[in-house]
């Protein structure tokens, strides 16, 4: 059995716990709780399929509207999820329409500063990720500047906390692996169809007949259980109006 050369050995342990030079957390998750103070190197890629927009999502629970949480008294779980999914749609379609086809996207629900509200997007092509990164750094969302950079993460599954997915993470929101905030099955289907046929019009088609196709007719804004409710929800005035005015949030 031949022994490995020094270069081969370093390549074999790159990003692992045995690697004393490169930060394994930064390589796996694109973030490190020590930030620039880390004793190991954070080698930022010059080319990557993945872009991270740091602390972009501000959840209702974490907003500083009131110290005692009274601003949440009128918010239902459904309303909080709707607000998040509106944000998710905004970012997904804005990036796919302007920069290129998206393979994966997720938002971190962690509480620690280095992961809280991070948005990770993996584009199909590296060139699109580079283009998106350069463009998003000159843009704002909801009156806040966007901070985007290329990210070394190549496997979202490896970056995610397995214990959180089954409801057993003992570290809670301060875990150093991604606690991915889930989206509804309905939204997954909409995004999946848009990814298979990306175009500027795909979103309105996927969400049911548009106002133009229906002559301005809009369904009720009901929510909840059955298939009929889901179809109505797709055409609900708030969501449709928000889509048309998305540029107002960027």
Summarize the structure in short:
It is found in: Nucleus. The protein is of the alpha+beta class and 250 residues long.
Care to describe what's here?
By secondary structure, the chain is α+β, with helices and mostly antiparallel strands. It has a four-stranded antiparallel sheet with strand order 2-3-1-6, covered by helices on one side. The longest helix has 22 residues. The N and C termini lie far apart (59 Å). About 18% of the residues have low confidence.
Topology at a glance:
Elements: H1 6-13, H2 24-29, E1 50-53, H3 77-98, E2 102-107, E3 119-123, H4 126-136, E4 140-141, E5 144-145, E6 148-151, H5 156-159, H6 162-165, H7 185-196, H8 202-206, H9 211-214, H10 227-234, H11 237-244
Antiparallel strand pairs: 1-3, 1-6, 2-3, 4-5
């Amino acid at each position: 059995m031949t022994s490995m050369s020094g270069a081969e050995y370093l390549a074999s342990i790159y990003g692992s716990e045995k690697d004393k030079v490169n930060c394994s957390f930064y390589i796996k998750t694109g973030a490190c709780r020590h930030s620039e103070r880390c004793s190991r190197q954070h080698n930022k890629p010059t080319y990557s399929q993945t872009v991270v927009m740091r602390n972009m999502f501000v959840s209702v629970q974490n907003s500083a509207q009131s110290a005692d949480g009274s601003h949440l008294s009128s918010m239902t779980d459904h309303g909080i999820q709707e607000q998040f999914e509106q944000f998710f749609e905004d970012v997904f379609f804005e990036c796919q329409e302007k920069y290129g086809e998206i393979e994966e996207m997720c938002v971190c629900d962690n509480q620690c500063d280095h992961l809280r509200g991070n948005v990770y997007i993996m584009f199909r092509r590296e060139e699109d990720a580079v283009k998106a990164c350069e463009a998003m750094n000159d843009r704002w969302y909801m009156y806040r500047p966007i901070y985007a950079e290329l990210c070394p993460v190549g496997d979202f599954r490896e970056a995610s906390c397995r214990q959180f997915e089954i409801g057993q993470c003992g570290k809670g929101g301060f875990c150093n692996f991604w606690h991915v905030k889930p989206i509804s099955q309905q939204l997954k289907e909409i995004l999946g169809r848009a990814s298979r046929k990306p175009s500027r019009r795909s979103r309105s088609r996927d969400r049911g007949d548009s106002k133009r196709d229906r002559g301005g007719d809009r369904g009720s804004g009901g929510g909840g259980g059955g298939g009929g409710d889901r179809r109505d929800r797709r055409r609900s005035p708030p969501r449709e109006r928000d889509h048309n005015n998305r540029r107002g949030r960027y």
